Amino acid sequence: MIEEARIIKNLKNFAFPRLSGTGFELKAFNKVKREVENLNLEYKVRRFTFSSFYSRLYPKIAFLSVSLILLLLYLNIYMIMSLVFILLLLGIVIASIILTRKPEKIQFITKLNSQNLIVRIKSMSNEIKNNDRIALFISHIDSKGQRFKIRIRIRIIKLWIYSSIVLALIILFKNFRFIGFEIIFYIIGLFPLILNMFATILMILNTTNNTSEGAVDNASGIACNLELLNHYNNPENRLINYNMWFLFTGAEECGTMGIRHFYNNLEKFDRNKSIIFNFESIGNHVYIFPGVKGDHAKNIDYLLLNNKRNLPIRHYHTERVLGTHSDGVFLGDSGLQGFEFGQVEAYDYMHTPNDTIDKIDTKLLKKLCLILTDALKKHDSNFIS
């Protein structure tokens, strides 16, 4: 049975600062582990080490390096010396890009420890061929605070991108197209140059801290995942055609490190038959985010949008929010199919001290859990082998 009282209890239990790689995240992980142990369920813990380079340093290095290259090209003085610096900066950018293609393998600068916890519940039937159909429920354990909230960071990144494009065009015109009119382009380029440098300075000043309670992001997801785990722990509620996995990831807020390590060790998971459900920051509205949903679960999508419990669920049709990462999006980019639930409006206070329990409608979380159990039960009953 889905219980609002238990959802409220778990929200209160997990709404405290728990920055990835710290003892606070470990405390939250141990709380999850105790909840699982209280259900007498078996679980696996996979520990891993990671570096904060990808999430906290790499963006600053990349943006600053490109801005300095544009500045040197704009000034167009001491070209031999400038060329040396430009090549050096390009080398830094290229090396950083190569390194961050597999950020979970980076093991320098600050090395931190984290862990994932996974619970596997077998289906009601033993007739699933090779046990290859899995419903995977995900929520991340850690939280983080930052100097600037998400909406401000998105605007800073957009300002940097637009000013960089304009400045690059002005540099091309000044140096290659309208030779002899350089002074005009120096004057025109001064404004985007100032904006670009301003945006770069703000990015450098944006530091990560442990000041956010992370109630919406992502105690709400933990509460939903634990509630569904309680529900499906009862053998009578289990699905016939799907085994069920419940994954609690660490270090999501530091470059989705937990889900990357989980994916790299993923075995016996048929991506063409399995479905993922990622709970990512739900307060008082529910959106299905793009980038994860797949064709083989279209009827689940229909059942979610046309649920009988009077909960509006909408697709967030805008492209992926700039500069943000999530476990669900990472798996979607990796070819897995399913759904990610979140709330766009939460960007106004996520990663700040204002991410508190009062932002969460617990009745909505209960309805979402009920709607998911309804949809999966219907989907399971209509399943054709």
Coarse structural class: alpha/beta
What name does CATH use for the topology of the largest domain?
Aminopeptidase
Question: Which radius of gyration do the C-alpha atoms yield?
Answer: 24 Å
Please tell me what the overall shape is: elongated
Strand order of the largest sheet: 1-2-6-3-7-10-8-9
**CATH uppermost class of the largest domain:** Alpha Beta
Q: Largest sheet at a glance?
A: 8 strands, mixed
Report low-confidence residues grouped into runs of 5 or more: none
Task: Give a written overview of the molecule.
With 385 residues, this protein is α/β, with parallel strands linked by helices. The chain folds into two domains: 4-51 and 110-146 and 208-380, Aminopeptidase; 56-101 and 149-202, no CATH class. Helices cover 48% and strands 14% of the residues. The chain has eleven helices and ten strands. The strands form two sheets. An eight-stranded mixed beta sheet has the order 1-2-6-3-7-10-8-9, with helices on both faces. A two-stranded antiparallel ribbon has the order 4-5. Strand 8 (286-288), helix 9 and strand 9 (313-315) form a beta-alpha-beta unit. Helix 3 runs antiparallel to helix 6 (182-205), helix 5 runs antiparallel to helix 6 and helix 7 packs across helix 11. The radius of gyration is 24 Å and the shape is elongated. The mean pLDDT is 90.
Outline the fold blueprint.
Layout: H1 4-14, H2 23-38, E1 43-51, H3 53-75, H4 79-99, E2 111-121, E3 134-140, E4 145-146, H5 150-177, H6 182-205, E5 208-209, H7 215-233, E6 243-249, H8 257-264, E7 275-279, E8 286-288, H9 298-305, E9 313-315, H10 327-333, E10 338-342, H11 362-381
Parallel strand pairs: 3-6, 3-7, 7-10, 8-9
Antiparallel strand pairs: 1-2, 2-6, 4-5, 8-10
